[in-house]
Amino acid sequence: MKRKRITAKKLKIGIAAAFMIFGFSSVSAQQQVSLQEAIKQALQNKAEAKKAALQIKKAEYKIDEARAGALPQISGTAGLTYNPVIQQSLLEFGGQRITAQLGQPWSSSAVVSLQQAIFDQRVFTGLKAAKSTREFYVLNSQLTNEQIIENVATAYYQVFVQEENLKTVEASYSNTEKVRNVIKSLVDNGLAKSIDLDRTNVQLTNIGSNRQQLINSVELSKNSLKFYMGVPIDTDIELEEKTIEPRPELIASNVNLDDRLEIKVKNKNRELLQYNKKATEAYLYPTVSLQANYGWAGTGKKFPLTNGLNNGVLWSDYSAIGLNINVPIFTGGATKAKIQQAEIDIQDLDLDIQNTQLNLSLEYKNAISNMENAIINIQSMKDNVDLAERVQKNTQSNYQYGLATLTEVLDAENALTQAKQNYSNALLDYKQAEIKLIKAKGELNTLQNPS
């Protein structure tokens, strides 16, 4: 009988030792992906980034188009005409009337014309607007990149925390499985009750179910990350192993909301609307242009392209230079109405800018509060993990000496697993709050480079 007690005691010590072993084997052979690498691939692959780059390129061509209006416009024309019936005209000479045929059956001409704008306010305004349009698309591209970075970073840490939860549950499953095997050995030797084995199997099944759910969650989170990275969904990725450390210094730094890209884009858009108003006002200004042409014409009874004066075809050149001035006098008030509409568009955008400034200010204040709460919550959850670990160790120690039941041991293991998962979720909440704060400060681009 004494020998049996010693054996049972050794087996209990073995159970306690089994609880102390935490193992999680990673068999992944995939290449590890850092947050910076994920962002880099997203900016290279995502359609939104590519489309923003195309808009910048398109703006370059708009500048070329606007510049063309200030450059000489040269064109060439050529024509060949045959008149089978030539109209006759009635002429009077010294009181006598005669009929005459004015014209020849064949006529041909080749003309080169030049037109140069000397003063046209619309052309000059259009050139400035085109350059401003390019700057607008550059800012818009940066804003698009910020949105991509935010999506990638959020998805990245979602995967990170899900994997941490999976590691915790894997360790808990491994520990409980070892305990189950020890208890089964005890039951087989008549040293433990079968109900203890049943309780442990139920616990193991519950943990296994939770583990499978987390495996699915990790896979779904990785698919979301791959989508935001712009890589094929069947690509194998593995996150770089890295710990999450709170950065309370982010809260203390100052921020200028006018540096936010959302404000810069709207201010640039306002500049474009002002150019639109000036372009409309330009219709009230006179325009001055220079026109010049030089031509070569041939007329006669025969086909002019292969005949000359000897065959009755006269070829001669001609040229003209002119200065055109167009002064608008009265348009019925249409131009004035268009100017007023352009002014209303500017006023409407001013209201949007004010509202955006308020929203960004609210976003920044909320980001500060969420960041502060997240840091407090992380510390609280970390302390809770430490407490749960002490409770687990004490419960295991008490179980060795018969001062605690198996149920209490399993409950302590559950509490530790839950505490670790709560801590991981607190880390995710913190990272999401950190990303929001960095965005509110207009510094999302800093996530592209390791700190």
Automatic annotation (TrEMBL):
GO CC term (a single one): efflux pump complex
Main location: membrane
Keywords: Cell outer membrane, Coiled coil, Membrane, Signal, Transmembrane, Transmembrane beta strand, Transport
Record keyword Kinase present: no
Sections of the chain in a coiled coil: 32-64, 339-391
Subcellular localization: Cell outer membrane
InterPro entries per record: OMP_efflux, TolC-like
Signal peptide: 1-29
Cross-referenced Pfam families: OEP
Gene3D superfamilies tied to this protein: Outer membrane efflux proteins (OEP)
GO function terms (MF aspect): efflux transmembrane transporter activity; porin activity
Entry's family note: Belongs to the outer membrane factor (OMF) (TC 1.B.17) family.
Name under which the protein is recorded: Transporter
Lineage: Bacteria, Pseudomonadati, Bacteroidota, Flavobacteriia, Flavobacteriales
